[in-house]
Specification:
single chain; about 210 residues; alpha+beta; Pnp Oxidase, Chain A; 5 helices; 9 strands; globular
Length: about 210
């Protein structure tokens, strides 16, 4: 079969202004809960897109660890490629794709570091192997599998069972400024609702909903 002949008909749900929640965080929470209770393989997986210091865009899958009115939280090595990109350009976008529900969500905003105590708390909640791995991996830099395994073994002996968080590893929070909720529909006439902060609403926290063409 030619790639050009691959087609999928989307017809499970619809997304109308009349049934969309006024608050995009609540709309996201609703869709995430539905993904969590459906047969979605990785409901918290999201593509994180950044721009490198030289202007080169790049994207990778990371896992959402917290979502609320303050923003969307993920964790990584500050010295990794994405960490360096966020230092140079602290704006990013997130993309969730839930094909089982024929939905995707795009979120754009400014990214900042979490407070040290928040990163410490999450780090201590991780399995021991993951905590040691954060120390062992010089993320995004060349390293052989054998060298990494050897470093993990050495650190497992020296760090013990309660290692502290590496100073170069922790959390980021994306503070959303724009949401787009996409619901697949027949004939590629998809529903797309965009939420942007409404400066004319007269009070903080108001969002404007705009339907855009598929």
């Amino acid at each position: 079969m030619s790639l050009a002949d691959i087609r999928q008909t989307y017809q499970k749900f619809e997304l109308l202004e009349s049934n969309a929640l006024a608050d995009p965080f609540e709309q996201f929470k609703l869709w995430l809960e539905q993904a969590l209770h459906s047969e979605v393989l990785e409901p918290t997986a999201m593509a994180l897109a950044t721009v490198d210091p030289d202007g080169q865009p790049s994207a990778r899958i990371v896992l959402l660890k917290e979502a609320n009115q303050n923003g969307f939280v993920f964790y990584t090595n500050y010295e990794s490629r994405k960490g360096q990109a966020l230092t140079a350009h602290p704006q990013a976008s997130l993309l969730f794709f839930w094909p089982e529900l024929e939905r995707q969500v795009r979120i754009e905003g400014r990214v900042s570091l979490l407070k040290a105590e928040e990163s410490d708390a999450y780090y201590q909640s991780r399995p021991l192997g993951s905590r040691i791995g954060a120390w062992a991996s010089p993320q995004s830099r060349p390293m052989s599998h054998e060298a990494l395994a050897s470093k993990v073994d050495a650190l497992a002996r020296t760090l013990g069972t309660e290692p502290q968080r590496p100073p170069y590893w922790g959390g980021y929070c994306l503070q959303a400024q724009r949401f787009e909720f996409w619901q697949g529909r027949p004939s590629r006439l998809h529903d797309r609702l965009v939420y942007t902060q409404d400066a004319d609403a007269g009070h903080a926290g108001a969002w404007r909903i705009t339907r855009i063409a598929p």
